[in-house]
From TrEMBL:
InterPro entries: Hydroxyisourate_hydrolase, Thyroxine_BS, Transthyretin/HIU_hydrolase, Transthyretin/HIU_hydrolase_d, Transthyretin/HIU_hydrolase_sf. Residues 1-107 form the Transthyretin/hydroxyisourate hydrolase domain. Keywords: Hydrolase, Purine metabolism. It catalyses: 5-hydroxyisourate + H2O = 5-hydroxy-2-oxo-4-ureido-2,5-dihydro-1H-imidazole-5-carboxylate + H(+). The lineage of its organism: Bacteria, Bacillati, Actinomycetota, Actinomycetes, Micrococcales. It holds the Pfam family Transthyretin. Its EC number is 3.5.2.17. It is an enzyme of class 3 (hydrolase). Belongs to the transthyretin family. 5-hydroxyisourate hydrolase subfamily. This is 5-hydroxyisourate hydrolase. GO terms for molecular function: hydroxyisourate hydrolase activity.
Length: 108
């Protein structure tokens, strides 16, 4: 399993957000991995099994997702910066999404 995983839930529709492009970057802005959410709204293979401690950024291309659904959204993308402090722990960074709001938390 990847060291970092994510999933996106379309909270307005109450279902997984399928096909959202996701990219993981390191502190220098270098691309670590990218992918798209599957039928369950998950990206379970987002980068290597181990990453060094440090700051990372996940970018979700939410504008493209909403446009494909025929919905006018407010956020063209959602960017989440987080710090990986334990090189042995798994980090799950979920996104709860609607056209005009979003929230996130450290998942398990």
């Amino acid at each position: 399993m990847s060291h970092v995983t994510t999933h996106v839930l379309d909270a307005a529709l109450g279902r997984p957000a399928v096909g959202v492009a996701v990219a993981l970057y390191d502190t220098d802005g270098a691309l670590v991995a990218d992918g798209a959410t599957d039928d369950d709204g998950r990206v379970s293979d987002l980068g290597p099994d181990a990453l060094p401690a440090g700051e990372y950024r996940i970018v979700f291309e939410t504008g493209v997702y909403f446009a494909a659904s025929g919905v006018d959204g407010f956020y063209p993308r959602v960017t989440i910066d987080f710090e990986l402090t334990d090189a042995t722990a798994h980090y799950h960074v979920p996104l709860l999404l609607s056209p005009f709001a979003y929230s996130t938390y450290r998942g398990s």
